[in-house]
Amino acid sequence: MLSVQMLGMQFGGLKALSDVTMDVKHGEFVGVIGPNGAGKTTFFHAISGVHVPTSGKVLIDGAELQGKTPDAFCRAGIARTFQTPRIFGDMTVLENVRFAFLFGNHGASEELINEVIEETHIGALKNEIAGALPPARQRQLEIAMALATSPRLLLLDEVAAGLTEGEVEDVARLISRLRQQYGLTVVWIEHAVRTLMKTVDRVAVLNFGQLLADGSPEQVAADPRVISAYLGDEVSE
Length: 237
Ligand SMILES: Nc1ncnc2c1ncn2[C@@H]1O[C@H](COP(=O)(O)OP(=O)(O)OP(=O)(O)O)[C@@H](O)[C@H]1O
Ligand SMILES: [Mg+2]
Prior knowledge:
Elements: E1 2-11, E2 14-24, E3 29-33, H1 40-46, E4 55-60, E5 63-64, H2 70-75, E6 78-80, H3 93-103, H4 110-119, H5 135-147, E7 153-157, H6 165-182, E8 185-189, H7 193-199, E9 202-207, E10 210-215, H8 217-221, H9 224-231, H10 233-236
Parallel strand pairs: 3-8, 3-9, 6-7, 7-8
Antiparallel strand pairs: 1-2, 1-4, 4-5, 9-10
Helix pairs in contact: 3-4, 3-5
Bound molecules: adenosine-5'-triphosphate (ATP) and magnesium ion.
C-alpha cells in the first residue's frame, strides 16, 4: 500500500534521509527504531506531506504523492500522530475528536465520534479538558484524533514516549486491537524496543538517515550492525 523509493531529505548541509527505500503491505504492522536524530520523524514528515522530500518517491496504492499537501495524504488514507502531542489543551476530549472529524472532511456524526472515543478507551473522559489529562490519556486522545480521519494507514510517532512500562504495554495492546478492528496498516516509531519488537510483524531500523536493516523482529534483533548502532544493552537483556 505504501511504497517509498529512494527517499532523500536534505536540510542545508545535513542529509536527514538518504535513499530510503521501503514498502509496507496492506495490513502490515511495521515498527521503526533507531537512535535519536536518525531521521525517523523526518521520514514520517516526508510520507505525510509535512515535508517535501528533496528526492525520491512516495506512492500510496500506486499513486505518487511526494510534494503534495498533508490534506492530500489525508485524503489518500494516511493519518499520523506527532512526537509532540498536537491536541487542543483548552478544549474537551469530545471537542478535540469532533475537530479531527471535521479536518478529515467526515461529517461529524455524534455516533461515530462517540464510537472512536469509546474504542480508544477515553469515553469516561470525554467532557474533561484535554490539557489537564495525564500523558497516557493525552496519547489515547491523539490516537482517537488520528482515527477520526478514517485512515487506512496510521503513522504513530512515539505515542508511548514518557509513559510507564505498564502504560507502554497498554498502548501496544490498544494499537493492536484498533488495527484488527479497523483493518489498519500501521507504522509505529518507538524507543520502547522490547514492547515494540513483540508487537509488530516487521522492524525497520534507521541510522544516520539510512535504512540500516528491515526484517522480522528476530532478524533485526540478531543483526550485528543494529546491535552496535542502537540495540546494545537491550539485546543482552
Ligand atoms: N526542520 C529541520 N531543519 C533542520 N534540521 C532538521 C529539521 N528537522 C530535523 N532535522 C535534523 O534531522 C535529523 C533527523 O531528525 P529527526 O527528528 O527525524 O530524528 P528522529 O530519528 O526522529 O530522532 P528522535 O528519536 O530524537 O525523535 C536531526 O539531525 C535533526 O536535527
Ligand atoms: Mg523523532
